[in-house]
Design brief:
single chain; 499 residues; alpha+beta; FAD/NAD(P)-binding domain; Rieske Iron-sulfur Protein; 3 domains; eight-stranded mixed beta sheet; 29% strand; globular; binds FE2/S2 (inorganic) cluster
Length: 499
C-alpha cells in the first residue's frame, strides 16, 4: 500500500530554494497552495511585486491531498445556507464557487497547463428514503441560488440510490499539475517563490515584516496569509473553525461505473467517489470517514474506507492519503483582513472541504482587499462579520470540546511505555510531565514534550500517518517534532526517552 497522494506521486515537481536573503516587495503571500499561488498571480498581474513563502513545498498542504473536485455544489449546503444567512448570501456563495470553476479553465487555457481538467456534473446522492426530502430541498435551494440543479433518481453507481441532486458544468482536475503550472508562471513573471521557508511571525505596520524560521525577513506593503488555518492567533480563527481530517483510498480501475460524474453521499460520515484518467489508465478514488483532528484512529478509518471500496466496487485499494480541512462555525469561509486593527494583513480560511474552486475565487477577493477595491462577495466572506444567530451554537460546542481536551487530556491515565509497538507512539506520564514517545522500527525510543506548541493541548498519536496530531486546533508534528501543519510554528520540544 502506497501512502502518498496520487497528485504528488504523478507530478514532476521542481524543487525551489529557501529564502536566502532579506527582501522587500509590495505583497508577501504566505502559503503555496491553490489560494496563495492564485492570489500571487492576481496581484502580480495587477503590477505588484510579490514574494511567496512556503514552509514545505508547493501543494504540500490540502491542495495536494484531496479528491480534486472543482464545484459549487458542496454536499447539501444551499438549503442550510439560505436558512442561516438568506438568499442573497446563498447566491453570492454559489456565484463565487462557480466563478472559481470557470477561472480554473481560463487559467489552464491561458497558461497552457496540462492538468486533466474536464467537465463533469457533481452529484450529491442519498441511499435512504429518509434523506430524499433533504435532497429535494437542496435541488430547490441550489436552483434559487442560481445553479443548474436537477433531481436524479438513477446514477451509474453499482448500488441503488433513493434520490440525488446533480449540478452540471462542474469539473475535476489534477491539482498539483495545475499548481506547478501557476508556480512556473509566477516565476516567469519574476515572483520569488521560496520553499522550505516557514513564516513564524508577521509584524503589522508600514511596511509589514514577515519573519521566517530561516532568519530572513520580508518587508511588504501587504501580507496575505494563505496557510489553511492562519498561524497568526490574532483574529482567533482557531476558535472560529474546527479542523477535520478525512481520507482517500485509490486503485487502478477497469470498471464502467462512476465515470459519468463526481459523487458525494448524504450520510455521515459521507463517501466521495470519482474516477480519474491518467496516462497510465483510470483510477478510482473513494474518500470520506472524516473526524475531528486528533480525536479518532486514522488506521481504522483507512481500513473502513478500503472495505467500503471493496464491497461497493470490488476493487482493492493500492494507495491512500489523508487531508485536513477547516470547518467555519457559521458555514461560510473567512476571507479578508486578519482582524480589526491590522489593515494590511489578510487571510483566507474555513473552506469546509471545498477549497479548490473556493481557493481560486478567494484569490480574487484577496486581491481586491489588498488593492482597496470593493467586491460583490466581500460582505458574505468578511472576516470581521458577527452572525451570532448562525454561529452561536457551533461556536459554543466547538470551544467546549477544546476546553474538554485541554483539561481532560491532562488527567487521562496514560499508557505504559512497554505497550508501544515498533513503529508506533503513545503519550506516557502524567499531567505536566506527559511525553509523546515513539518507538522506531529498530525498537529505539524517541521522546518529545506532549504539549502542543500552539496553546498547550496534549497531542495524540496518529497511527495511520505516524504523526503527532493536536486535538484542539489541528496542528500536526512529525515524529522528530517538526511542524507539519499549523497553527503551531514551533516544533515539539525534545525530551529524554523513558528508560
Ligand atoms: Fe492549538 Fe494545539 S493546535 S493547542
Amino acid at each position: 500500500m502506497s501512502q502518498s497522494s496520487l497528485w504528488l506521486d504523478t507530478t514532476e515537481r521542481q524543487p525551489r530554494a529557501p529564502l536566502a536573503r532579506d527582501v522587500g516587495v509590495d505583497v508577501c503571500v504566505i502559503g503555496a497552495g491553490i489560494t496563495g499561488l492564485s492570489a500571487a498571480l492576481e496581484l502580480r498581474r495587477s503590477g505588484a511585486s510579490v514574494a511567496v513563502l512556503e514552509g514545505r513545498f508547493v501543494g504540500a498542504g490540502a491542495s495536494g491531498y484531496n479528491t480534486a473536485k472543482l464545484s459549487a455544489l458542496h454536499g447539501l449546503t444551499y438549503a442550510q445556507l439560505e436558512r442561516r444567512h438568506g438568499l442573497d448570501a446563498a447566491r453570492a456563495y454559489a456565484e463565487a464557487n462557480q466563478h472559481g470553476v470557470e477561472r480554473a479553465f481560463e487559467l489552464a487555457g491561458q497558461l497552457d497547463i496540462d492538468c486533466d481538467l474536464r467537465r463533469k456534473p457533481n452529484v450529491t446522492y442519498a441511499e435512504t428514503a429518509a434523506d430524499r426530502d433533504r435532497v429535494q430541498a437542496e435541488v430547490a435551494a441550489a436552483g434559487r441560488a442560481g445553479l443548474p440543479a436537477s433531481l436524479v433518481e438513477e446514477l451509474d453507481l453499482p448500488f441503488e440510490i433513493a434520490a440525488a441532486v446533480s449540478v452540471a458544468g462542474q469539473a475535476q482536475f489534477h491539482p498539483v499539475a495545475f499548481l506547478e503550472g501557476v508556480a512556473r508562471e509566477l516565476e516567469r513573471l519574476g515572483v520569488t517563490l521560496s520553499e522550505g521557508t516557514m513564516a513564524v511571525g508577521v509584524d503589522a505596520g508600514s511596511p509589514c515584516r514577515v519573519r521566517t524560521a530561516t532568519g530572513h525577513t520580508v518587508a511588504a506593503g501587504s501580507v496575505v496569509v494563505a496557510t489553511h488555518l492562519p498561524f497568526l492567533d490574532r483574529g482567533l480563527y482557531f476558535a472560529r473553525c474546527h479542523p477535520e481530517r478525512s481520507y482517500v483510498v485509490a486503485a487502478p480501475y477497469t470498471g464502467e461505473a462512476a465515470g459519468e460524474a463526481m459523487y458525494l453521499s448524504t450520510e455521515s460520515p459521507s463517501h466521495s467517489i470519482r474516477t480519474h484518467e491518467l496516462g497510465s489508465g483510470t483510477w478510482l478514488l473513494v474518500g470520506g470517514e472524516s473526524h475531528k483532528t486528533g480525536q479518532a484512529d486514522a488506521q481504522e478509518r483507512y481500513e473502513r474506507l478500503e472495505r467500503w471500496m471493496l464491497e461497493r466496487f470490488g476493487v482493492q485499494a493500492t494507495m491512500r492519503w489523508a487531508t485536513q480541512d477547516q470547518m467555519p462555525v457559521d458555514g461560510v469561509p473567512f476571507i479578508g483582513p486578519v482582524d480589526h486593527v491590522s489593515a494590511n494583513v489578510f487571510v483566507a480560511t474555513g473552506f469546509r472541504k471545498w477549497g479548490l474552486a473556493m481557493g481560486i475565487a478567494a484569490s480574487e477577493l484577496l486581491a481586491a482587499w489588498v488593492e482597496g477595491r470593493d467586491h460583490p462577495w466581500r460582505s458574505l466572506f468578511d472576516t470581521r462579520r458577527l452572525r451570532l444567530r448562525a454561529a452561536a451554537g457551533s461556536l459554543l460546542k466547538e470551544n467546549a470540546n477544546v476546553a474538554l481536551r485541554f483539561v481532560g487530556d491532562r488527567l487521562v491515565k496514560r499508557a505504559d511505555v512497554d505497550s508501544i509497538a515498533p513503529g508506533q507512539g503513545r503519550v506516557v506520564g502524567q499531567r505536566l510531565a506527559q511525553r509523546a514517545v515513539h518507538r522506531d522500527e529498530s525498537g529505539e525510543l524517541h521522546a518529545l514534550s506532549a504539549r502542543c506548541t500552539h496553546l498547550g493541548c496534549i497531542v495524540n498519536w496518529n497511527s495511520g500517518e505516524r504523526t503527532w496530531d493536536c486535538p484542539c486546533h489541528g496542528s500536526r508534528f512529525a515524529v522528530d517534532g517538526e511542524v507539519i501543519m499549523g497553527p503551531a510554528v514551533s516544533p515539539l520540544e525534545r525530551r529524554e526517552p523513558p528508560s
